[in-house]
Specification:
235 residues, alpha+beta, Jelly Rolls, seven-stranded antiparallel sheet, six-stranded antiparallel sheet, 5 helices, binds 2-oxoglutaric acid, binds fe (ii) ion, Prolyl 4-hydroxylase subunit alpha, oxidoreductase activity
Length: 235
Amino acid sequence: MDIQQKIAKLDWAAITQSMNDKGYASIPGVLLSEVCDELIANYSSPDIYRKTIVMEHHGYGQGQYKYFNYPLPPIVQQLREAVYPNIAPIANSWMQVLGIDTRFPESFAGLNELCHQHNQLRPTPLILKYQQGGYNALHQDLYGDIYFPMQLVICLSEPGEDFDGGEFVLVEQRPRMQSRPMVLTPRKGDMLLFTTNFRPVMGSRGYYRVNMRHGVSEVTKGERYTLGIIFHDAA
Ligand SMILES: O=C(O)CCC(=O)C(=O)O
Ligand SMILES: [Fe+2]
């Protein structure tokens, strides 16, 4: 089964419900171990990335990441194209209930074209590498006027084997309430889909915006690699 078929067969009704209720969804076993290993091995390929970021130079945490260049590796392009049409309806329902006029195209090609029309031309999918002491400060990945409200990350390393610590952290900031932390521990090949900036939550006076940020706790041992897929391109 190829990755498109695998993505198509996921329980999108359950994923939609989890996104609406919790702001994230855990989807185990999306990438085979060999595919994870190949992505890690290609971290040192000189030609497939457009930029390397050393996180401590920017106050982003400790570790580094590389943005892929176009053309994206097939697996990355396929994941963007296969996941997007299943979550565009979630994004559109979020915009609708929040009274925001934005509507996202049905297909990934449509979103990509919209980004390019707004001069957001640079690809945002990336590989992140954390070594002992590495972490990722809480943040949101917004790269221009056009931003899709969900993104995904796939863990490429095995917790407890390749690394310790390095939990994926989500913090939900609710208006006039204290923030809610969520800690997730994806295994090698598992995918997490999560809210990039905000989602609607029903309150006594209708829907309100709940803001979300994500990050990674300290890697206490070994090396942790992840593949991050953001759907909008960067200005
Ligand atoms: O390494 C992680 O789990 C987080 C990666 C991240 O911040 C992202 O993909 O946007
Ligand atoms: Fe991020």
